[in-house]
Specification:
This protein has 6 helices and no strands. By secondary structure, the protein is an all-alpha fold. It has one domain.
Length: 115
């Protein structure tokens, strides 16, 4: 039963075109961010992570607000930020998959025949 729910969740998160496009966009943005942080040195380097945070919005901001209750040291640590970012992207992808699946499910309603 649990494996069936995990399979459904995995299908929602990774198994549709909309989620795949979203995850591809996130991966491309993360790769550009890694390149920017590793090789490019410029004055506005502190803002280079904003596109990735905006792609993970709004859930990432909720997690950051919740982490802020434990102090700024927690939310500014990489040990908190990276898992929160990954979790937020996965939640967004699953929500997108559920949203794509919704019109197909509503089309499957049973119809009663009228005489």
């Amino acid at each position: 039963m649990i494996s069936g729910r995990l399979a459904t969740l995995a299908r929602l998160t990774f198994g549709n075109r909309a989620s795949q496009v979203y995850l591809g966009l996130v991966l491309m943005t993360a790769a550009l961010l890694a390149y920017d942080l590793a090789l490019a040195h410029h004055a506005d380097a502190t803002l280079s992570g904003m596109p990735l945070l905006l792609l993970a919005a709004p859930t990432v901001f909720g997690f950051l607000a919740a982490g802020g209750m434990f102090g700024d040291a927690v939310t500014e640590s990489a040990a908190f930020l990276y898992p929160v970012l990954v979790l937020s992207v996965l939640i967004q992808s699953a929500a997108l998959g559920a949203l794509v699946r919704l019109p197909r499910r509503s089309g499957r309603t049973t119809r009663t025949e009228t005489a």
